Amino acid sequence: MIRFLIYRLLSAIPVLFVVTLVTFLIMWLVPGDISAEIGGIDATAADLQAIRERLGLDQPLWERALRWYGDLFRGDLGHSYTLNRSVIDAVLERLPVTLSLAGLALLLATIIGMLLGILASVRHNTWMDQGAMVTALVGLSIPDFWFGIVMIILFGVWLGWLPTGGFVPLAEDPVGWARSMVLPAFTLAITQMGVIARMTRSAMLDVLGQDYIRTARAKGMRARTVIFRHALRNAMIPIITVVGVISGVLLSGAVVIETVFSLPGVGRLIIGAIQRRDFPIIQGGLLITACVFVFVNILVDMAYVWFDPRGRDDD
Amino acid sequence: MKTHLKMASKLRSLGVIGVFALAAVFSPLPSLAQVKGGEIVIVQGSNPPSLDGMSTSSQASRNINMNIYETLYGFSEEIKPIPILAEGVDISDDGLTYVFTLRKGVLFHNGDEMNAGDVKASLERYRVVGATKNLLAPVKDIEITGDYEVTFHMVENTPTFLEAFSSPRAPAVIIPEEDGATEAGKNSFVGTGPYKFVEYVPDDHVTIERFDDYTADTRSEGIDGFGGKKTAWLDRVIFRIIPEPGAQVAALEAGEVQILEQIPMPAARRLESSPDINLFKNARWAFTTFIFNTSVSPSDNVKFREAVQVGLNMEEIMAISSEGLYTLNHRWQYEGTTYDPGMIGAEYYNQADTERAKALLAEAGYDGEEFSILTDSNIPQHGRSAVVIAEQLKGMGINAVINQVDWPTALNVRMQDEGWNGWTLQMGIEPYLGPVGLIATLASPARPHFVKPDAELDALYQELIKGATVEARQETFKKIQAHLYEIFAIIKVGDSGLMHAARSSVKGFIPFRFPRVYDIWLEG
C-alpha cells in the first residue's frame, strides 16, 4: 500500500507541472492584463506600460515562467496584484469554504444518491423504481444556479429558516456554519445525486442477478443483509469510480454555488482573479486546486483497494 | 426633453415613493429623532479593488472609502467645491498661488491630529499613486507655510483647478504622514472620516465602525454632498459583497441586509408596494454612450458616423439597456445643471430615421464593410445596448457584428488603434464631475476614447479649463456640444438611472454618488 501511495504521489508531479504550464499558456493567450484594472479607464498607454513594467508583465513568457517555477521550488507562490496578500494566504483562507461545501455536497449526494439507487434496484420495475429514477433525472436536469435561487427564496425569504447566503466559519460558530452550508451543499449535491443514483441502480441490478445473491436469499438470509453486505459491497467499485469523478465536478461546480450563495471560496477567488487578470492568484489557485483534486483521486484509488481485496493481493 | 419610463405608471409610483422618502429624510420634524447604535449591512456586487482611497477610481471602492477618508475640498450637493478638511483657500489674483488653511483639531483614526505635514505627504503620494494624478499636474510644488497651512505654487493659472481638485473620482484624500511613502494599496487605511476601517475579507465583506473621536465640521447644519456636518449614528457598517442580483434581493427581503446599492428594476417593480422596503431613485447616475473608433474604416468617415447618429432609436436602446430607468437627453451635461448647453444638437438626437441614415451611408460610400461593436459581459448595460444598436444598424444596412469579451479584454482592445469600430460605454462619474471631467476623456493629452485626437476639440478643451469665469466656460461648453454634433465621434444615447433599496427601518438615507453611511440610523 505504501509503495502504491508513493507511486501515485510521484505520478502526480508531471500532472501538476502540465496544469501549471497549460495555465501559463492560456493566460498568455488571453488578451488584457491587470494594468487596465489598476490604471483605470483613463490610463494612457504610457501609464499602462509603466504598470506592466512594475509587475514584470512586459517580460517574455519564458522568463516569467522560469521566475515563477523558481519561486515555486522555494515554496513561494507569489503575491496577489490586488488583494494585498500572498497567494498562499489568499487561497488557504478560502480553502475551508470550498472544502466544506464540496465535502458536504459529496456526502449528501453519495448518501441520498445511493439510497435512491438501492431503492430503485430492489424495487425494480415498480412505481418506486420509476419514482426514484424520475427524481434522479430531475436532479440531473435542474440548472444549479436556478435551483440555488429557488432554495434561497423558499427557505431564506418565505420560510426564513436559513440564511440567504454568506459563510460562518466552523470555529466561530458551528451551528451558524451548518446553517450557512445547508442550502449551498444541497444545491450542489442535487445534480450529482442523480448520477450516483443511476450508477448505483445499474451496478446493483447487475449484482442482484448473480447466483451468489440467489443462494444467499435461498439460505433464508435477511433481505437487509443480502442487499447491504453481499450486493452493495460488490457493487461499490463502479460507484466509487463515479464518486471520484464527482469529487472533481463538485470542486469545479462550487464556483457557481459560491457565487449564488455569496461564499468566499476558492472558486470565486479564481474567477475574480481571471476577470482582473491577477496572474499569481490564477496560477497559485489552480495549482492548489489541482493538488486537492489529485489528492482526492489518490483517496479514491485507495478506496478501490479497500473495497476490492484483489487490489491488496496485487500490492 | 422628454422623460420616458417603461411601465410609466408603475415607475411614477416609484417616483412618488422616492419623493416621500426624500421628504421624510429632509423633514425637520423632531419625530424623526436619530438613534445612536446598531449595525447595518449594505450590499454591493463586487469587491473594492483597493481600500487605499487615492489609488483607485472604482465605484466599488468609493462606496466604502468616502466614509473612511476625507479631502481638503469636495463637491457639495450642488456639485460645487466646498471646504471639508480645509478651513478655506486664498487664491492669488494671478491664480498662481493657492493658500489652504486647515481645520484645527481634526483627528486621524490613529488619534494623531492632522497638520500641514500630513497634507503635503498625502498630496505628494497622490502625485505618484493617485489614480487621477494628472489633477495635480498644474501644481508646481506644495509648500508647508504653517502648522495648519499649505501653499500650492501653480505652473500656470488654471481657473478650473479647485473643481478638479475636489473630484471624488480618485479623491486626493488626506492620510497620516507616515503613510506618505507607501505604495499603492499598502497604506494603513487610516483617514479622518466618521467611520474607521476594521477588516476586509475579499469576496465576503468590508467592516467599518464608528470613529468616536470624529471631528465634525460644524460650519454646516448637516451633510452637504461629500462634506458638511457628518454624524455617525451606527456602531458598525458591513459592506457585504454579493455578486448575484437575485441573491441580493433575497437577502434584502429576508431582512439579512438593510441597503442594496443597486436593485434590479424588475425586482424594484415587484417590491414597490412592500411596506418593508423603500426604493430610492438616483435618476442621474450615468451617461449611456456609443463611441466610434475614428481611425479605422468605416467609422473613420464622418458621414458614416452621422448616419449612425440619425438612424439610431435612442428610446429603444435606453429602454432595454437600463431596464426602463432612463431619461432621453441629447446634452453632454445633465439638464438644468450649470453647464447645460440647451437644445444644441437636439436635431440629431433620437431621430430613428433609417431612410436618412441610408442616404448618408450612400454619401459616405459605405460598401457593406464589417462594423465591429466592442462590448463586455461584466457590465450588463454595455452588452444590452450593443445588442440593440447592432440590430438597428443592420436595419440601416450596416454589416454590424458584436464582439463581446470580458472587461479587461475590452479595455485592452479599445487601446488598440484597430480591431474595433464601435464601443458601448457607461460614463458614470465623468458626467457628474461636470464638463472638464467629461471632456478630459475625449481630448488630448489623454488618449481620446474615440482614438484619433480632434484638434478643434483639443483646443476647445484648453479654452474650457482656462476659462476665467463660469460664464466663459458655459459659452465654451456650448461650442463643445456643437462640435460633438459635428464630428459624431461619440454618440450620447441617454441618461441612465440607478435604483437603490433599503429596509424601511433605515432612516435618513439620501441617494448620492456613494452610500453615505453617516447621518443614517436605524429606527429605534
Description of the molecule:
The complex is a heterodimer of chains A (315) and B (524). Chain A is mainly alpha-helical and 315 residues long. Chain A is built from 14 helices and no strands. Chain A folds into two domains: 16-92, no CATH class; 95-264, MetI-like (MetI-like fold). Helices cover 79% and strands 0% of the residues of chain A. Chain A is globular, with a radius of gyration of 24 Å. Chain B has 524 residues and is of the alpha+beta class. Chain B folds into two domains: 46-241, 3-Layer(aba) Sandwich (D-Maltodextrin-Binding Protein, domain 2); 284-497, Roll (Dipeptide-binding Protein, domain 3). Chain B is built from 15 helices and 21 strands. Chain B has helices spanning 8-26, 59-68, 116-129, 161-165, 245-253, 265-271, 302-311, 314-321, 354-364, 380-396, 407-414, 429-433, 435-439, 455-465, 470-487; strands at 39-44, 73-75, 81-83, 86-91, 97-102, 139-146, 149-154, 195-201, 205-210, 223-224, 227-228, 236-241, 259-260, 277-292, 326-327, 370-376, 399-405, 422-427, 490-503, 506-507, 521-522. In chain B, the strands form five sheets. In chain B, strands 1, 8, 9, 12, 13, 14, 15, 16, 17, 18 and 19 form an eleven-stranded mixed beta sheet that branches. In chain B, strands 4-5-7-6 form a four-stranded antiparallel beta sheet, covered by helices on one side. Chain B starts with 7 loop residues before the first helix and ends with a strand. Chain A binds chain B through residues 30-34, 36-42, 44-45, 48, 82-84, 90, 94, 145, 149, 152-153, 156-157, 160, 163-167, 259-262, 264-265, 268-269, 272, 275-277, and chain B through 47, 49-50, 56-58, 131-132, 170, 184-186, 201-204, 240-244, 246-247, 250-251, 253-254, 256, 378, 405-413, 415, 440-441, 445-447.
Helices and strands, with pairings:
The complex is a heterodimer of chains A (315) and B (524).
Chain A: H1 2-29, H2 34-39, H3 45-55, H4 61-73, H5 87-92, H6 95-122, H7 127-141, H8 144-158, H9 174-208, H10 211-218, H11 223-260, H12 266-276, H13 279-307, H14 309-314
Chain B: H1 8-26, E1 39-44, H2 59-68, E2 73-75, E3 81-83, E4 86-91, E5 97-102, H3 116-129, E6 139-146, E7 149-154, H4 161-165, E8 195-201, E9 205-210, E10 223-224, E11 227-228, E12 236-241, H5 245-253, E13 259-260, H6 265-271, E14 277-292, H7 302-311, H8 314-321, E15 326-327, H9 354-364, E16 370-376, H10 380-396, E17 399-405, H11 407-414, E18 422-427, H12 429-433, H13 435-439, H14 455-465, H15 470-487, E19 490-503, E20 506-507, E21 521-522
Parallel strand pairs in B: 1-12, 1-13, 16-17, 16-18
Antiparallel strand pairs in B: 2-3, 4-5, 5-7, 6-7, 8-9, 9-12, 10-11, 13-19, 14-18, 14-19, 15-19, 20-21
